Amino acid sequence: MSICSTVKGYTRRHEWLADFFSLMAIVVLFATVWAAIEYNGPVLEWMRDNVILHVPAVVGVLVLVVALIFGLLCAGSQRCPEGSDDCFRTFRGRRHGSPSLFTAFGNWIDHIEHVGKKHR
């Protein structure tokens, strides 16, 4: 049994928790944007003090925040039909059709239009 099945089963039983994870991902995203705007000057000044040590620290924090946002979104999107065994549901993207950016965008739009019908 994979961890995906465990998370999917838990969020299926507790749908409010999946909604909470989705909400927390949005809160973390907007809090990060607010903090970047609000503390832009002091952070840049702090990074100038020791570029070798502080710039990788800021980049590392940004990578961790992005990973946290994606993790919360993944935990919040594990709502699948009862008989479904697959864990990962994504749009078709570049795998189908020609390798055109417009085709991938069209496939993504098609996925978004039908996501409620296929996943719930």
Describe what you observe in this structure.
The chain is mostly helical. It has 5 helices and no strands. Helix 1 crosses helix 2, helix 2 packs antiparallel against helix 4 and helix 3 crosses helix 4. It is elongated, with a radius of gyration of 19 Å.
Strand content: under 5%
The structural class is: mainly alpha
What is the N-to-C order of secondary-structure elements (H for helix, E for strand)? Answer: HHHHH
C-alpha geometry: elongated
How would a crystallographer describe the biggest sheet? none
**Low-pLDDT runs:** 90-95
Q: What is the straight-line distance between the termini?
A: 22 Å
How large is the count of helical segments?
5
> Count the strands?
0
Helix content: over 70%
SSE layout:
Elements lengths: L2 H11 L1 H24 L1 H10 L1 H26 L24 H19 L1
Helix pairs in contact: 1-2, 2-4, 3-4
Short summary:
With about 120 residues, the protein is mainly alpha-helical.
Keywords for this entry:
120 residues; mainly alpha; 5 helices; 0% strand; elongated
